[in-house]
Q: What sequence folds into this?
């Protein structure tokens, strides 16, 4: 039926749109890295770049395990109780997960610039994991 075909096309276009926008937002990570490296002394440039990379990696794991289920899992009006570590997550929701993840990681990276050269490495990562 034509209605079924149109519904499939709509779903695929939604997924495509979310993934393209996610990739664009993910490029903000590189922009913030350049901004932060330009704002600190040269001896701390490597530290800033490592923080930005680990924001994505550790934040991704934290968001996958806990963040997305709490924010978007089925549950009551306050907290989600499903989708822990993507368990039971419908296939069409993975693009939404990616979209929300890149924003969570970017939010953590924005703060890394304001605490550059002012915060210990370990304290920053505890904060970053908790934020994402």
A:
């Amino acid at each position: 039926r034509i209605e079924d075909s149109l519904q499939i096309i709509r779903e695929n276009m939604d997924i495509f749109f979310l993934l393209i926008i996610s990739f664009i937002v993910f490029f903000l990570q590189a922009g913030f890295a350049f901004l932060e490296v330009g704002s600190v002394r040269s001896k701390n440039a490597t530290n800033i770049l490592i923080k930005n990379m680990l924001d994505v990696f550790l934040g991704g794991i934290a968001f996958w395990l806990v963040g997305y289920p709490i924010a978007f899992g089925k549950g009551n009006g306050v907290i989600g109780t499903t989708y822990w570590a993507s368990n039971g997550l419908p296939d069409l929701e993975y693009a939404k997960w990616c979209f929300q993840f890149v924003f969570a990681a970017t939010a953590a990276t924005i703060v890394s610039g304001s605490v550059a050269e002012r915060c210990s490495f370990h304290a920053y990562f505890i904060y970053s994991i908790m934020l994402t």
Remarks:
- Residues 1-131 form one domain.
- Helices lie at 2-39, 45-72, 94-114, 121-131.
